[in-house]
Specification:
By secondary structure, the chain is an alpha/beta fold. The chain is 36% helix and 19% strand.
């Protein structure tokens, strides 16, 4: 089949989170299965260093009309990588800026125009470069694709048979804009209704994707269930329940070419389930990098995250004093909300012998934490899929997670009687439940035979892209049949 991925992020060009990893890995996996795969991305300032030499325009100029003016976009040919063709929508006044979605974590005020133009430019470009059987769109930033197909391009014979699959990576981000966005994007007012795109008197991009896409996927089976509830749907649960028959939960895979302790170039030593000697060296290297030293009998707890309430750091903050009382070391890496950056700094200052934090993002250090920690902590309030707990399993680092979304799907509670399971989970969103799970992990850590079995159970898990790709393939085929 011909499949076009349309997204706001994709490794290696631009990344703020797991979306970029998924788009990069899944498109590559689909190309390896013999599909003709294209990826469309905006040409942000961050992308420019990847476009070596003189740019080659596949299309020099496309006119994109708005209510009172037009803009002009070019389509830059990004070449073929790993069998995947890449195109970039070039509109410098909208995309050649610092920050992807906004400066310093905020949102640009013209994001509706930016990603409205992006969607329409992709549709216009595909008419010249090849209309795919499937547009696989990701999150709100690409959700105008099916809206335009059902309105502005409804009678376009070239696009009539194109199907759309929407993947929701995080329903907490939906793209809410003023009602006048309807006119700005030259869309008919008839779509600004509660059963279409209207959402509490806003124009909601993601809701448009939910209403008009042919099929919808979420990034784990658990998250597919959660987003149909008031707690997990962020106001879209009703619209998602309406589409329940067309909604699938497909767990993200991970790229074991990048995340494998037997080959990882970021590590001080390599190790395998059969020979774990190198993990001790990784632990020593990690503690040295963070400037702390604890005996081997003290477990090292690793954290790599965006410091945000969604990730459960309000629980850590509430449990801060009690965390410090436990016989464990904590190494944390990340940036985020000032409240939690301050919390980690204070915790490290008050407990400098056993707690250290680096307020930054460093990919190499993230690998070192996965390899050198004994325990990996993810207490998320909600987690659509999560990748770090899957990396942790591969690296023999035991995850302690809240049982939500993909965390619940990928981590099995340790059973001491049967020596089964891969980690520790807690359900109640409370500091007490979090501390109880940590205490269970520390208790088993001191039983070296059980801990070794627990590590090896995790390292034996396989979360490659092979099975998710088969499931996406089935979704694509179902949509293509419906359009035939």
């Amino acid at each position: 089949m011909q499949i076009a991925f349309v997204a706001s992020e994709c490794v290696p060009f631009v990344k703020t989170g797991g979306l970029a990893d998924v788009v990069g890995a899944l498109s590559r996996e689909m190309a390896q299965r013999g599909h003709e795969v294209t990826v469309y991305l905006p040409l942000y300032a961050a992308v420019r260093p990847y476009l070596e030499g003189e740019w080659k325009y596949a299309i020099s100029s496309i006119t994109i009309p708005f209510q009172h003016y037009s803009r002009f976009a070019g389509i830059v040919d990004g070449g073929v990588r790993d069998g995947v063709k890449h195109y970039f929508v070039d509109c410098p006044e909208l995309f050649d800026r610092k920050g992807i979605y906004g400066p310093n974590g905020s949102e640009y005020g013209d994001n509706a125009e930016r990603f409205g133009l992006f969607a329409r430019a992709v549709l216009e470009a595909s008419k010249q470069l090849g209309v795919p059987q499937i547009f696989h769109i990701h999150d709100w930033q690409a959700s105008m694709i099916p809206v335009f197909l059902h309105t502005v391009y409804r009678d376009d014979p070239m696009l009539r048979k194109a199907g759309v699959v929407l993947t929701i990576h995080n329903a907490g981000y939906q793209g809410w804009f003023p009602p006048t966005t309807t006119e700005q994007l030259l869309l008919p007012w008839e779509i600004f209704r509660f059963d279409k795109l209207e959402h509490y008197n806003t124009f909601n991009f993601l809701k448009g994707g939910v209403v008009y896409s042919d099929m919808i996927t979420a990034v784990s089976p658990g998250y597919a269930e959660e987003i149909q509830t008031p707690d997990g749907g962020n106001g879209l649960d009703g619209a998602l329940r309406q589409r329940a028959a067309d909604l699938r939960g497909i767990l993200n895979g991970v790229d074991y070419a990048e995340w494998d302790p037997a080959t990882d170039g970021n590590l001080a030593a390599h190790f395998t389930p059969q020979n774990l000697k190198g993990k001790r060296e990784c632990r020593r290297d990690l503690l040295h990098a963070f400037g702390i030293d604890v005996p081997e009998s003290t477990p090292v707890v690793g954290i790599v995250s965006r410091f945000a309430t969604q990730k459960g750091f309000d629980l850590l903050k509430e449990a801060g004093g009690q965390l410090a009382e436990r016989d464990m070391a904590i190494v944390a890496l990340g940036t985020g909300e000032p409240l939690y950056e301050h919390f980690f700094r204070e915790l490290a200052y008050a407990n400098s012998a056993r707690v250290a934090v680096q307020i930054r993002y460093d990919d190499a250090m993230a690998h070192k934490i996965e390899a050198g920690s004994d325990i990996f902590l993810m207490p998320s309030r909600f987690e659509p899929c999560g990748l770090n707990q899957i990396y942790s399993l591969k690296y023999g680092t035991v995850p302690v997670v809240r049982a939500t979304g993909g965390l619940d799907d990928t981590v099995e509670e340790w059973n001491s009687e049967h020596k089964s399971g891969t980690g520790f989970k807690f359900r109640d969103y409370s500091p007490q439940a979090l501390l109880a799970a940590i205490d269970r992990a520390i208790s088993v850590f001191h039983d070296r035979e059980s801990w070794l079995q627990l590590m090896q159970n995790g390292m034996a898990q396989n979360f490659s892209w092979d099975d998710p790709a088969r499931q996406y393939n089935a979704v694509y085929e179902e949509v293509a049949r419906s359009k035939a």
